[in-house]
Amino acid sequence: MIELKGICKTFKTAKRNAGFKEAAKALFKKEYSCIKALDHVSFSVSDGEMVGYIGPNGAGKSSTIKIMSGILVPDAGECVINGRIPWKDRINHVKEIGVVFGQRSQLWWDVPVVDSFELLKDIYKVSDQEFHKNKDVLTELLDLGEILRTPARLLSLGQRMRCEIAASLLHSPKILFLDEPTIGLDAVSKVAIRGFIKEMNKEKGTTVILTTHDMQDIEALTERILLIGKGRILLDGSLSELKKRNETYKKLTVDYAGKGVEPIPGLTIVNSVEGHAQMTVDTRILSVSSAISHISGQVDVTDLSVSGATAEEMVVALYKEFSI
Amino acid sequence: MKLYLKYAAILLKSQMQYKTSFFMTTLGQFLVSFTVFLGMYFMFDRFQAVEGFTFSEVLLCFSIILTSYSLAECFVRGFDTFSGIISNGEFDRIMVRPRNEILQVLASRIEFSRIGRLIQGIVVFIYAIPASGVIWTFDKILTVVLMVVGGFFVFSGLYIIYASLCFFTTEGLEFMNIFTDGGKEFGKYPFSIYGEEVLKFFTYVIPLALFQYYPFMYLIGRTDRITNMLLPILGMLFILPCHLFWRIGIRHYKSTGS
Amino acid sequence: MKKYLSFFRIRFIYGLQYRAAAYAGVATQFAWGGMILLMFAAFYKNSANVFPMTFKELSSYIWLQQAFLALFMSWYFDNDIMSSIVNGNIAYELCRPIDLYLMWFLKNMAVRASRVVLRCAPILLVAFFLPEPFKMSLPNSLLEGALFLLSLVTGFIVLVAFSMLIYITMFYTISPVGIRVLAVSTLEFLTGAIIPLPFFPEGLKKVLLILPFGSMQNTPFLIYTGVLSGSEALQSIFLQVIWFLLLTFLGKRFMKHALAKTIVQGG
What we know:
The structure holds 3 protein chains of 3 kinds.
Chain A: E1 2-15, H1 20-26, E2 31-45, E3 50-54, H2 61-68, E4 76-81, H3 90-94, E5 97-101, H4 113-123, H5 128-141, H6 157-169, E6 175-179, H7 187-204, E7 207-211, H8 215-221, E8 224-229, E9 232-238, H9 239-245, E10 249-257, E11 267-273, E12 276-282, H10 288-298, E13 300-308, H11 311-321
Parallel strand pairs in A: 3-7, 3-8, 5-6, 6-7
Antiparallel strand pairs in A: 1-2, 1-4, 8-9, 10-12, 10-13, 11-12
Chain B: H1 2-15, H2 19-47, E1 49-50, E2 53-54, H3 55-75, H4 77-80, H5 82-87, H6 90-95, H7 101-108, H8 115-131, H9 138-166, H10 181-186, H11 196-204, H12 213-219, H13 226-236, H14 239-256
Antiparallel strand pairs in B: 1-2
Helix pairs in contact in B: 1-7, 2-8, 3-8, 3-9, 9-12, 9-13, 9-14, 12-13
Chain C: H1 2-16, H2 19-46, H3 55-67, H4 69-72, H5 79-86, H6 90-93, H7 100-128, H8 142-169, H9 176-190, H10 202-210, H11 218-225, H12 230-265
């Protein structure tokens, strides 16, 4: 059970301007500016839930993760995870969580992965029995096999990420924080990792909080989305709810011969290159059929397709809606 | 402790992956302090003695400080490279593991090539032990041990201060070198040769003289006071305020996350 | 030439940004210089007769050494350059229409110069107001002052030319760190950064003065303090120029060879 109530956090950063004069000036005086990273963030996640935590860069995602993992103390607000306040009881808290920072490695670079695992076993004081059980299960599910005997520096990004995830689960944490776990991976690895996370969540009931920029991750994994922007939670709901909200939008892709389409109320032209255009229709103003008849009245349509918005577009629309 | 050894084993294993590099670096480390030795040799070749200390006496002092410094450097190096640990996010990783932070920081960087310097210290030691003219009774041996251990603690404390400062700023920490590198560099001569003010500073502010000058005077028989021999123990207590400062640093880190 | 100048400028300004580092550097070097002088004072007290220079001259020497430390520090190596050699990214650099040797040379100069600009004035200023005999003195004449400045610049570029050779050896070794530690400690010692060259035994000193090691920090500082003067000073500056030409010639030759080798191996 994760509960955040009214979490606030402000950072102070030094300004640094370009140019010779400014550099000389900075020798004597520094200017600071305050950034509100988190502004009354509240949400709760029940055991076994899988939540996608999304938002643009600098929205406050990693600050939230840091607070939930006990690294950062908020200025105000409450955070209780499994009955503990993370930063007050760090050591006991982190025993029950696993964290994967997608862009940083927790494996020891020059030694075989399995050696890293052995060391983690000692760090987390995992019993032999549990360690071997977990290692075997993870090896099988993540298809680690031979990889375990390779030094981490020789692994491909996809192989490494699989090992990173396994490393975070050796101590059977109740909660798993995944910070951009699929960043930079190829399609096959992404699918493998998504499959595994889903499995973990279903079989072991691990609570998963996932930050990502990849909407396919969200679509494949999570039912619930938390959207954060400028330090505030903008939306807390299910993916289908979000979809419903966006049902008022339809996307038209048109191939045509002729001069081009004039927009009318409800019909926006997203882009058009000679003979190929993408448009959106706001169905509250204009029905899809009247939009099509408007288009075919203006140009000679050779091909036309209608589709709903993808998750990514929905998020972009949300960003726009909240102007972040 | 068991965990620390495990860390040590894994780091040794990774450093041994680059054997040539390891041995070259070790050799380099050896040579670095060899030039210091050579410099002292040239000075004494010209001047014979300084403030009544002979070359072999000074060498004994040099070997003690070099040994304790290189031990600290070898095993407490995590603190020396701490600004890197913070800036590359490794410290966040440390914080999400259920173990004491200090232990993890220490264990994350153990630089075995520093053994080159340690060897230098020991070689000079072996030369200076008979040459210094000290009659090696039990209390003298105990004094040397206390000096080395005390030095290890004080240098470690200085590294901890250095690392704690990294929580507040990553710039301008160069001045700590006066005490760490400088302590080793200038500590090759008994601190009394720099004058009374310097000796006082290194007694009451940064207690380097507690494990160097005072017990050293006892060691070479300039004083019989047994308190001199025991002063390194007092010096070890220096680690306590350093540890307190570290806790303050952690608290700051937790509130800024920088 | 313009591109090289603007490159120098960017690096120089970049170096000026490190405000706190500069303050700390000044404090460190000041304390360091003071300790060195106190140490020499102890030796001086015992046997002034075998001191190779007057204590006043030594004081000026040590303060100059601390003030211009960044010009002559042999342990500074540019991280970008080092890593581009080690990981083979150097190949990309070759795609640009620039003289790589000249660019690296300027980069090194710019970083060192920017550090000195921030640090030398406060150190020298305070050193001038210290009590005798620890204070920094003015040069004996205007001419010697001018010769010092000239020789400071030539000594500086001799050192950079020498450290370029160390960079280039990185192309040929599998252990850059080891070579670097080794080269740096030898260079430190032989150029007189640990104890000034006049304190070396006579025979070794004679050899070092002919070699490039004597043409780095040793020459300008000895000219300033007046240990070297008149025709001796001019001769030393002439030797500095010779070494500069020789070292850059060698550096460019080796660099060409090293780059050719890199390309053949495919980085």
